[in-house]
Specification:
This is F-box domain-containing protein. This protein is mostly beta strands. It is built from six helices and 25 strands. The chain has helices at about 20-25, 30-40, 45-50, 55-60, 65, 395-405; strands at about 75-80, 90, 110-120, 120-125, 140-145, 150, 165-170, 180-185, 195-200, 205-210, 220-225, 230-235, 240-245, 255-260, 275-280, 280-290, 295-300, 305-315, 325, 330-335, 335-340, 345-350, 355-360, 370-375, 385. The radius of gyration is 24 Å and the shape is globular.
Length: about 400
């Protein structure tokens, strides 16, 4: 065919559909199918493709479909208990969304202790850092994006127990309701340690004791994904996967998943627990290699199979070559911690323990930039990347929460 021909198919490669045919094919798809396709894209691709046409942009802002689309983290809420600080939001460089970072919509917000974050909701404790001898302590769940909050019932007088861990479980793609798990670490009369758990069910607004015990403790930031809570074992290099309980049976079932990488050898390392994350709809895990100069990120495929997604060099991130040191007790310790990451945005958050700062590291460019300076490096309690959730609490739950607070 003449290269100068104006025929629409003159420069089209063999086997590719014409633009007219592609347009007809896309227009024949229902909104549900388009949303299903777009929801499987990485965040960066979705942000570009939603500008293709007005209908795609409208679908991305529709409340009915919005929960299926990838969401963009804007920063991380954090608190430094050692300095009795307020709760703050350290924003990522490209974030421009307006969020009440002071949580001023919550009564007595100055006295809130940050306990955790789960898919856009925050778990806080009133009566913690500054009000240690408060007459009453309240567990509070709030949504900074919508400025909604609720106080949970059946809280105990006085400050929180040091042997009790509270974990928030919320995933809007799984349910509009949330759970709060209270893990109580106890010792029997013969010196055996075990864990008991109580669970708050937001759908019926009650706490319930569940028939579950485990003779171990765990640490780190738990992740709730697709109805399963994943938590790190304190000493063993394993994950504890706890299925969300049924409000009727009130039973908890769990299984053990072996983590990839190398275990925390207490005879060599003081701490090397790695970092859990949920990204692109799957559970992921990151850990430094032995010398700290490389980092690996795995994703969980199926129930217990880990696949390497990235192997990243850390040599040019911190401005120094030495990333592994030996402390005065003879234990090895990495110069940095892996704080959180988001594979959809190709972003890793690192804690520099030497220069006392939080660094945003780009997987695509291999460069890091400072987002927060932490004087004398405090422990950032309950912190994770924060992704706004604009869904509302169910009206019936909010009403019962208001009655409880009054």
């Amino acid at each position: 065919m003449d290269p100068g021909s104006s025929s629409p198919g003159a420069f089209r490669r063999p086997g590719l559909p014409s633009p007219q045919l592609l347009e007809v094919s896309m227009s024949s798809l229902t909104d549900d199918l388009v949303v299903e396709i777009l929801s499987r894209l990485p965040l960066n691709s979705f942000c570009r493709f939603k500008c293709v046409c007005k209908s795609w942009c409208a679908l991305s802002s529709d409340p009915h479909y919005r929960k299926k689309f990838p969401r963009n983290p804007i920063g991380m809420f954090y608190q430094i208990p050692e300095y009795r600080t307020d709760i703050h939001l350290a924003r990522l460089p490209s974030s421009n969304q307006e969020i009440d970072t002071t949580l001023s919509f919550v009564p007595c917000y100055e006295d809130l202790q940050l306990m955790g974050c789960s898919n856009g909701l925050l778990l806080c404790y009133h009566g913690g850092i500054r009000t240690y001898f408060a007459d009453i302590s309240h567990v509070i769940v709030c949504n900074p994006a919508t400025q909604e909050w609720m106080s949970l019932p059946n809280t105990e007088p006085g400050p929180s127990s040091s042997g009790c861990d509270l974990v928030l479980c919320f995933d809007p793609s799984w349910s509009q309701h949330f759970h709060v798990l209270s893990f109580q670490f106890l010792s029997s009369t013969v010196g055996e340690a075990f864990t008991e758990v109580k669970i708050f069910f937001s759908e019926n607004f009650i706490w319930s004791s569940c028939r579950w015990r485990i003779e171990t403790r765990f640490q780190g930031s738990p992740r709730f994904l697709n109805g399963v809570l994943y938590v790190n074992g304190l000493l063993d290099h394993v994950l504890l996967a706890i299925d969300a309980p049924d409000p009727c049976t009130r039973l908890l079932s769990q299984r053990i998943i072996q983590l990839p990488g190398f275990p925390n050898d207490l005879g060599v390392f003081s701490w090397c627990s790695g970092c859990l994350c949920q990204s692109l709809g799957v559970l992921c895990y990151a850990q430094q290699e032995f010398d700290g100069c490389m980092m690996r990120i795995w994703s969980l495929e199926g129930t217990d199979s880990w696949v390497v997604r990235h192997r990243l060099s850390m040599n040019n991130v911190f401005g120094r070559d030495l990333l592994l040191r030996t402390d005065h007790n003879g234990f090895r310790r990495f110069d940095y911690d892996i704080f959180d990451f988001d594979l959809g945005r190709e972003l890793v958050i690192l804690v520099d323990r030497i220069d006392h700062k939080i660094i945003s590291f780009s997987i695509s460019t291999g460069k890091g930039s400072e987002i927060l300076k932490v004087p004398e490096f405090g422990f950032l309690y309950g912190s994770q990347l924060y992704v706004p959730y604009y869904g509302k609490f169910p009206a019936s739950v909010l009403q019962r929460a208001e009655d409880e607070w009054e």
